[in-house]
Amino acid sequence: MTRLRRVIVLLAMVFAALAVPARAADRAVVLDVDGAIGPAIADYVVRELHAAKPGEIGVVVLRMNTPGGLDTSMRQIISAILASPVPVITYVAPSGARAASAGTYIAYASAIAAMAPGTNIGAATPVQIGGNPLAPSGGSEQKQSQQQGQNKGDDSADTETRKIVNDAVAYIRSLAAVNGRNADWAADAVRSAVSLPAADALSLHVIDVIADDIPDLLRKIDGRTVTVAGKPLQLATAGLDAVTVPPDWRTELLALVTNPNVAFILLLIGIYGLILEFFNPGAVAPGLVGAISLVVALYALALLPINYAGAGAHRHCADGRRDPYRRIRRDRRRRHRRLRHRRADDVSLASSRFRSLQRGGDSNRNRQRRSALAGARGAAALAQKAGGDGKRSPDRRRRRGAILAGW
């Protein structure tokens, strides 16, 4: 009887614990995405999304005003949004802001896409960084060579452009299918770079709601059912407190360093600082400042998708393509260098063997070895002086065999 009472009390305690509702989230985190989307913004957004816990945070709002950004950084943010257990809302605000290019993809990946009055979204065509517009313009000879090579490069350029655009279309269509948005308009935004104001975007089901501010947004989306991490979830955002989490010093510093203009200025400072240190040994300040600036610049350049070919690091043909004979010339130089080293080794090896045999006495066997080595040493010296085409010839194999046989 006592055991039965204990079981009943235990079951009652379990049911009482299950009947207590879980603590609801009490705040909404607002992240400001203002400016171009790069490594700094991606690090900031991904870090905050990973730190968001469903029991503490109801929703994460990305207050966005961006002209676009890097494809790699955009995909990092989208991957974090799709994997986040907390609903993510993209809110294009304040009035006059835009979500162009990469911002359009992020809005399509979010559970809720919202805009403030007087904003626009679209123009999602991918554009390469470091193209011909950034290259310095040449004279008439350069224009003529470009016109001659234009027909040759048209096919490869068109193929590359189609690959990039088709990949972007497929990507944004997949994001539209996740949250049930207008996939046809998204494809037009990529192919034709079309844009929409807030009212038209709402009528075409590109976005879900138009709101004046964050509290108005939280009131309007309350009770909606969205897909979060592949599962349906009903939003409860009516009484949430909006808490803005600004970028920290790490994000601000990373954004400053990865700015292309600042990175190249630091690179120049580093180079000239090291030059001054070389010309004035003992002056610690120029070398120290130059080394620090160079390290920071190289770190920044490693994060930037810089086309080093635009800076003249590689040889190109007249039509802008890489020189196809560059690798052939490099391999030929390597073969010649290896051949010179081998011939020098053959001469030194024959000389050392000959000297050792001279010290070994005057027997018939030693005289035969000395004559063979003398002939091999002379042949090796003549071959080294004459040079060659870098190929391994039968004479070289016979010469090395004579050296080894003589020893």
Fold blueprint:
Elements: H1 2-19, E1 27-34, H2 39-51, E2 57-65, H3 71-83, E3 88-92, E4 98-100, H4 102-109, E5 112-115, E6 120-122, H5 140-179, H6 183-191, E7 195-197, H7 198-203, E8 209-210, H8 214-220, E9 225-228, E10 231-234, E11 241-244, H9 249-257, H10 260-279, H11 284-303, H12 326-358, H13 364-386, H14 394-406
Quickly list its features:
alpha/beta, 2-enoyl-CoA Hydratase, Chain A, domain 1, 3 domains, three-stranded mixed beta sheet, 14 helices, 57% helix, 12% strand, disordered C terminus
What would you say this structure looks like, in words?
With 407 residues, this protein is α/β, with parallel strands linked by helices. It folds into three domains: 21-134 and 163-248, 2-enoyl-CoA Hydratase, Chain A, domain 1; 259-311; 326-406. 57% of the residues lie in helices and 12% in strands. β2, α3 (71-83) and β3 form a beta-alpha-beta unit. α2 runs parallel beside α3 (71-83) and α5 packs antiparallel against α6. It starts with a helix and ends with a helix.
